[in-house]
Amino acid sequence: MNHPKSPIPVEYKLGFHDDISYRRCLGKGISQEAVKKVSAVKGEDPWMRRFRLKAWEKFLVKPLPTWGGDLSGINFAAINYYLSSTEKKVFAWQDLPPKIKRTYEKIGVPRAERKVLAGVEAQYDSESIYGSIKKQWEAKGIIFTDTDTALKKYPRFFKKYFGRLVPPEDNKFAALNSAFWSGGSFVYVPKGVTVELPLSAYFRINARNLGQFERTLIIADEGSSVHYVEGCSAPIYHSDALHAAVVEIFVKKGASVQYTTIQNWSGDVYNLVTKRARVEEGGSMSWVDVNIGSKITMKYPSCLLVGRGARGEMLSLAIAGRGQHQDTGAKMIHLAPETASSIISKSVSLEGGRATYRGLIKIPSGGRRARAKMKCESLLLDEFSQADTYPVMQIAEKEVNAGHEATVSQIEDEQLCYLQSRGLSREEAESLIISGFAEPIIKRLPMEYALELNRLIQLEIQKGVS
Fold first, then answer.
1. Rounded distance, CA 369 to CA 422, Å?
2. Among 26, 145, 211, 405, which is least packed, fewest CB within 10 Å?
3. What number of other Cβ atoms are within 10 A of residue 144's Cβ?
4. pLDDT tens-digit profile, the chain (466 residues)
5. Is 317 within 8 Å of 436 (Cβ atoms)?
6. Residue 201 and residue 131: Cα distance in Å, rounded?
7. Domain ranges in the chain?
8. Contacts of 357 (CB under 8 A, 6+ apart)
9. Rounded to an integer, what distance in angstroms lies between the CA atom of residue 272 and that of residue 284?
10. How far is 64 from 61, CA to CA, in rounded Å?
């Protein structure tokens, strides 16, 4: 059966691109020589160059995943693995090239920095082009900068933590990232320090056929607390782009980290991301993950609960529209006694889109008195869309409390009729119902981001009914 076509295209707000001249361009194609050129451009120490070359070797032998989304359409030879638009990073918005500055003003990043953020890192294609942290947080010893800068200024952190949670051999795209990584964020929060406003990073793909490979490393020392927010977007082209990021988070004893992602990619982006956190005794790690757009997303943030009483949480929302496959989920690995985890996954499928939940709870021997729960809720807006759930529970301990539940439903005609009888249009009614469905995720976002997410939900519904 053919699903209906939309005769009127609805504007994707972030689908514009900047017509700029790039100062450094690696050119299309993938090779060991390209890896060497990236390292040379960055002036890296020999140990990082060796790391990249070993990762390249792993990439060559690692197979593409045979589960999840169909990745057979990725043409690695057609991707540009490094593009830089500016000579150097700046620390004031007015110092950016005018076209790029206007892009971030359209997205709203400078306004958010002024109103609700402790600091911002902005990446444009392959490089971080802007960075700022407010002086009151910097005075407390907080480090927030791009990962390339941190590698040179704080090498002791890198040799201890970089690549420890997500080594190149983890999967093909972690290996690709490790070979070509550029940009990303580095955060260090000292012992006992609470960052009361979020730190934020924004990743923008502008160029056609670009591969973006940011690398983020966060270390929350004992008793500290931080909330990190990232946003992502890209123009609309008729050729594919690749986003393959790696995130490593170390949550020390009694520390607390929330990592919030709001991704609004255009429909020609392969979004293939590996995110992992290590949580020590009494620590807490929360992933809040929103995935809208992209051609295919495959992302399963995980927590390694290695200390007694460590806690992991995942709240996710995926919206799959026409031609999109959101294959998302989470992994919670209970490696110590009295650990706890919670996964709440929500998805919305419309216009023939497909949403897949793929989750793992693992409690090996030694995870005594662990508590774990998975809850998956899927909402279908039409007969052409699809939702799948693949929960896995591997439990080798007897004294645990673990469970899973899943539901799939459609918006009821009675709900729509009631709301329309109160003067709402059909799309307004559907948007309101979906916002209520997503409420557990929305309420965990800073106000500016919660309002933006509600706007994005409305935009997706407009696309679906046009």
1. 50
2. 405
3. 27
4. 344 333 223 343 444 344 444 455 666 789 999 999 999 988 999 999 999 999 999 999 999 998 888 999 999 999 888 876 555 666 666 666 665 656 556 555 556 555 556 677 776 666 665 666 778 888 999 999 989 999 999 999 999 999 999 999 999 999 999 999 998 999 999 999 999 888 888 767 666 677 889 999 999 999 999 999 887 654 444 457 899 999 999 999 999 999 998 888 878 889 999 999 999 999 999 999 999 888 999 999 999 999 999 999 999 999 999 899 999 999 999 999 999 999 999 999 988 999 999 999 999 999 999 999 999 999 998 889 999 999 999 999 999 999 999 998 888 788 888 888 888 888 888 888 888 888 888 888 877 777 777 777 777 776 654 4
5. no
6. 9
7. 24-420
8. 328, 329, 345, 347, 376, 378, 387, 388, 389, 390, 391, 406
9. 25
10. 10
CA distance linking residue 152 with residue 134, whole number of Å = 22
Contacts (Cβ under 8 Å, ≥6 apart) of 382: 3, 350, 351, 352, 464
**Minimal CA–CA distance to 352: which of 12, 14, 6, 68?**
6
Cα–chain center distance at 334:
23
Distances (CA, A) of 220 to 165, 226, 250, 253, 307: 15, 7, 6, 9, 15
Taking a C-beta distance cutoff of 8 angstroms, is the pair 394, 362 a contact?
A: yes
23: tokens are 């100062």
Collapsing DSSP to helix, strand or coil, 414 comes out as helix
